[in-house]
Fold this sequence. Notes:
Elements: H1 14-55, E1 61-63, E2 66-68, H2 81-91, H3 103-111
Antiparallel strand pairs: 1-2
Amino acid sequence: MPEQSVLEGFEKNLGELIDAYSEQKTMRQFHEKEAEKFSANMAEIEARILQAMADQHLEQAAHGGTIVRPKEHTYAHVEDWSKFYDFIEKERYFHLLEKRVSVTGYRELLDLGRQVPGVVPFVKTKLSVTKSAR
């Protein structure tokens, strides 16, 4: 069942919309701070669970219907970008790079009047909101 829209039940004049936006932004910021606390707590508990499982030589544990098991993930940490880029170019392993353009770098080139081959700019209009002192 979809949640009820925050805009239902009141006039949608510009002042009310701005107030509603500001209130939602404040609520989101509050909940993001709360979510950060939960994430930090979960990370600490996770570390303790993993240590307890390692100490007991367990590959899996269960309690109250929840099953936990360690799972390793390997990530790349580049120590020498020049060597890494040389390897990618030589082997043609371009799939090792994320396919995302740096927004900051792209804007800098546009500001310098440079065009980037294969890239077409698009403009997305967003609302800029500044809280004023009342």
